Amino acid sequence: MATVWAIKTGNWSDPTVWSSGTVPGTTDDVYLNGYPVNINQNIQVASVRATATSGVIAGGYGALAAGTYTIQCDMYASSAASSYCFRGNSLASGNYTFVGNCYGGISGSSYCIYFLGCSNVTFSFTGNSNGGSVQSSHGIFFSACTNMNISYSGTLTGGGLGAAGMSIGGTAITANLTATANGSITGQAAIANSGPGLSIACVNSTINFNGNSTGGASYCCGIWLSATSQTGTVVTINGIATGGTGGFSYGVYNGSINGTVRVYSAVSSTVAEGVAGTANGTTTVERMTYSLGGVSPITGNVKIRKTTNTQFSFYDDTNTLNVFYDPTQTANVVPNASDVRQGVSYLGGTRVGSCVIASPSNVRIGVATDNTVGTAALTPADIVTAVQAAFPRMPNVATVDSTAQQLIAALSTS
User: Are the C-beta atoms of 75 and 104 separated by less than 8 Å?
Assistant: First the structure.
């Protein structure tokens, strides 16, 4: 592994840009050294850093050009304020794939990956994105963008005050965006009043998240939908939103103006609700689970979305978990264990069936069993075999009339 740094502005593919005199290789740690370097090829290195090291100053960035590029490395934002490690500026098209972990900086607005004023761009990220340690030092930041298609797989973790693992919108609203995320989202767990895992400020956008979102320390949410998110934005969380370790550390918070947030399951921690909503937006959950201490899983203006998965779980005064559903809805009626096949787990793993179903080979032919009919055919030979098995002496019993019976028969005919 070698340390390589930029010595001038130029294209990444130009060997004269680099201190080594060669284009950085797969095991190199690359420092941008205060220079903008144009990304004009795919990149695979150990890391790209806008940070300082011995003989290298902080700053510089990888300038994304229109095109299709794959960048594989860990990425570190600068220690300088209002900086970034990779930037796409006013791009009208492009397809960018990032693989690795990214880290926000230690100064205000020091982003790791930054898209500003872009449109018709496809962005894919696989890895973990972490907010930096200070104000708005997001790991990944999309600002004033339109018609973006974003996909993400990994973990988003909040950092310092307002520093999100990923921020979509910020103070400049992002519009007409489609995003799909897979993984987990966590608010800053160690420092109160810090960053969410995912911050959203969009209009007319659709965001689907497949995973769980967990609050962090006090006032640190997993997912934060800000008041600048407005009509037309729909956020769906296909997972569990769990409260964090401090007050107001919601798994999901909807503070939008007429935005919609749909959460599959809200679970409270010992001190915080899983989902919170205001009167200005629409917030719904399908499932709710109270903590052992009785903290509500929801707060504010939250409605229950009735589906076949709707259920409510809470502990009674004996600390026994109870699961309830709506018995007026046929689709929601939970069967008794005696009506469910033996060994089958259901109702979220809280119950196991005990009904023993006879196999078709043990049921008379044509008689209904399970989802088919019996195949067992009863023959005379089967009866003889069964009787002989039950009465072993039966084959030795005489089959002729006794002497007395024969005399009676003879006298009755004379």
Answer: no
Contact (Cβ atoms closer than 8 angstroms) between residue 8 and residue 17 = yes
Domain assignments of the chain as residue spans, ordered by start: 3-356, 357-414
pLDDT digits (tens, 9 = 90+) for 8-25: 999 999 999 999 999 999
Closest CA to 310 of 288, 295, 340: 288
- pLDDT at res. 74: 98
Q: Are 104 and 83 in contact (CB under 8 A)?
A: no
Query: What are the phi and psi torsion angles at 167 (to 5°)?
Result: -120, 125
Reported as type and span, the H/E element at residue 121 is strand 121-130
Instruction: Kindly report whether the global pTM for this prediction surpasses the value 0.85.
Output: no
Please state, in angstroms and rounded to a whole number, the distance separating the CA atoms of residues 214 and 156. 10
The dihedral over CA atoms of 352, 320, 324, 250, expressed in degrees to the nearest 10, equals -110
- Closest to 50 (Cα-Cα) out of 28, 30, 72: 30
- Given a contact cutoff of 8 angstroms between Cβ atoms, the answer to whether 39 and 12 are in contact is yes
DSSP state of 307: S
Cβ–Cβ < 8 Å for 186, 161: no
Q: Which distant-in-sequence residues (6+ apart) come within 8 Å of 95 by Cβ?
A: 67, 68, 69, 121, 122
Query: Which one, of 17, 5, 108, lies nearest residue 47 by Cα?
Result: 5
Reading the block at residue 155, the tokens are 């973990």
The answer to whether 208 touches 238, Cβ cutoff 8 Å, is yes
pLDDT band at 330 (very low <50, low <70, confident <90, very high): very low
Q: Could you tell me whether strands 178-186 and 149-157 are parallel, antiparallel, or unpaired per DSSP bridges?
A: parallel
Segment 303-323 shows an average pLDDT of 85
CB-hemisphere CA count at 13 Å for 237?
A: 34
> Could you give the CA distance from residue 306 to residue 326 in angstroms, rounded to a whole number?
9
Distances (CA, A) of 28 to 3, 6, 33, 53, 127: 6, 13, 15, 14, 19
Tokens 């006879």: give the residue: 358
The tens digit of pLDDT for each residue in 358-396 reads 888 888 888 888 888 888 877 777 777 777 777 776 666
Residues 6+ apart with CB under 8 A from 6: 17, 18, 19, 30, 31, 32, 33, 34, 35, 37, 60
Report the distance separating Cα 141 and Cα 84, nearest Å. 10
β-strand partners of 30: 4, 48
